[in-house]
Amino acid sequence: MKINSLIYQEQQEVVDVKAMVEVYQEIAAMRMQNVKQAVLSARQYYESLALLVQEVRPWLHTRSKQDKSVSKAKKTALFFSANTGLYGDIIERTCREFLSYITKEQSDAAVIGQAGKRMVESAGKSVNAMYFPCDDAHPTREQIVSIVRYAQGFDTVEVFHGRFVNLISQVPYRSSLSGEDAVNTAVGSDWQKTSLSYLFEPTTAEITAVVEGEVLASVVEQILHESNFSKFASRMIHLDHALEQIDERLLHMQVQQRQIARRLENKRQLSRLSGRALWQL
Fold first, then answer.
1. Mean pLDDT (whole number) for 168-181
2. Which of 62, 230, 250, 258 is most solvent-facing, going by the fewest CB within 10 Å?
3. Domains along the chain with CATH numbers
4. Helix axis angle, 114-121 to 90-105, nearest 10°
């Protein structure tokens, strides 16, 4: 059994760790609250924008290819991860979904965040991925623009990120920033013969600039907020579990201290009884 001084020293260290974890938890709660209302209230709107991009973007590409004979790379997948840790297992679970997709589809890949980069590199698979830095709490416009510019170079763009369901449930989520497969299914090889058609005014180039610029950037920014929201919620649960374990450890050390105190008291009691016995002799 540990001596009392060592238990006291460990107890102080655990108390310091508990204080640090509580600070991290409070920061995570503040950041989650900052984005919660914006994410939940805007979710339906931005999902509608994403559907607009999915529906219109392939037609713009088809028209652009006819007008300019421009060809683009086939498909890519974006994995929105994090730059730091302490987010529970949501990043790891999303990474598994991402790796499974790019392995099956043989698509190009891009990873947003240093934590995701480390996970992909340590997965043991030869993944040739682009990497983009991105702040966890406040992504800059330059960071968003670099991601959008990358996505603009592909016909099919699949996105993987964490999604907030409720405070105790964060799930890997896959969405699309393109709709090439849907258009191919609808129109076959000759899109002009279908009744589903679009007239772009004033020009295809100008509409493309808006859809693949402002609209796509807004959707990507919302995805970043969704990802961050799920990460901070997951961090809160992860840190709450850590606090429970710390409290259990502190309780265990208090029990050890009481046991040591009782043993010392028993020794003193035996010493007193032994002394009385000697005097009686």
1. 76
2. 258
3. 34-239 (3.40.1380.10)
4. 60
